[in-house]
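Q: I'm writing up a methods section and want to include an example of the input and output format. Could you take the sequence below and give the corresponding predicted structure tokens, formatted cleanly so I can copy it straight into the document?
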Amino acid sequence: MAHGFEIGRDGPSRILACVDGSPTSMRAAAWAAGMARRQRSQLVVTFVAADTAAALAPQYAVDVQQALDQLSEQLRAEVTASAAQFGIAIEFIAAHGDPYGEICRLAHRNRVDAVVVGASAQAGHRLVGSLAVRLVRAGKWPVTVVP
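A: Here is the clean output for your methods example:
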């Protein structure tokens, strides 16, 4: 039996990886980059700066914003350099606001097929629920949680 060329792919065509600088998020980005390379997928990496810190301490809002912008640029540089080592192109998107809402918005806008996040290391998330759990419960995309 002759096997012809199959058009299409088995895996995701666009992957959204979420980073915040934590070790688990950086492992998640590396895992997503490896998947994108193997599947020949497009990789979108996002950093969402939560606005809660500025709201809790308005007198430091400018300092907090500058620190978040600096972190965003550091993450952009690190992720871009790592992607070059993998031999893949990425799109880096920095956003501000509620991480869950922004990730959902970006996932819809970029028509991603999968979302990759790092597991939360914060003890309080066991009670309230982490971002990863909220994304899984949304049930809109396959979500991979990297430890």
